[in-house]
Amino acid sequence: MHYYTVDPLLGENEAFEELLKEVHKRNFKVILDRVFNHASWGFFSLTIYSK
User: Fold this and answer.
1) Residue 36 and residue 46 in contact, taking contact as beta carbons nearer than 8 Å
2) Measured distance CA(49)–CA(51) in Å, rounded
3) What sign for the dihedral angle of Cα 24, 5, 16, 31?
4) What gap in Å lies between CA 6 and CA 2, rounded to an integer?
5) Residue 38's CB: how many other CB atoms inside 10 A?
6) Is 39 exposed, middle or buried (0-12, 13-18, 19+ CB in 10 A)?
7) Looking at residue 41, what DSSP letter applies?
8) Rounded CA gap, 17 and 3, in Å?
9) What does the alpha-carbon distance between residue 19 and residue 38 come to, in Å, rounded to a whole number?
10) How many CB atoms within 10 Å of residue 16?
11) pLDDT tens sequence for the chain (51 residues)
12) pLDDT of residue 13
């Protein structure tokens, strides 16, 4: 699994980037939620903030 791209089952990176652009034009923010209990302690998102 690649955590830096949109899962092909959910769409394409370009569509997500367009969504973000349109949302930000309207002064809204997008919050992405991850399920961290499915990752190890070595997972990059957990290790970069533990220092």
Assistant:
1) yes
2) 6
3) negative
4) 8
5) 8
6) middle
7) T
8) 15
9) 27
10) 15
11) 567 888 888 899 999 999 999 999 999 999 887 765 666 777 776 677 666
12) 93
Which two structure tokens, joined as six digits, stand for 21?
């652009």
| H helix runs in 1-51, sequence order | 13-25, 44-47
43-48's contacts with Cβ under 8 Å and 24+ in sequence apart are 44/3, 45/3
Place of tokens 């923010």: 29
Non-local (6+) Cβ contacts of 46 within 8 A are 36, 39
Dihedral-angle region of residue 27 (phi above 0 means left; psi in -120 to 50 means alpha; beta otherwise)? left
For the record, the structure tokens of 14 come out as: 């370009």
**13 with 22: CB under 8 angstroms?**
no
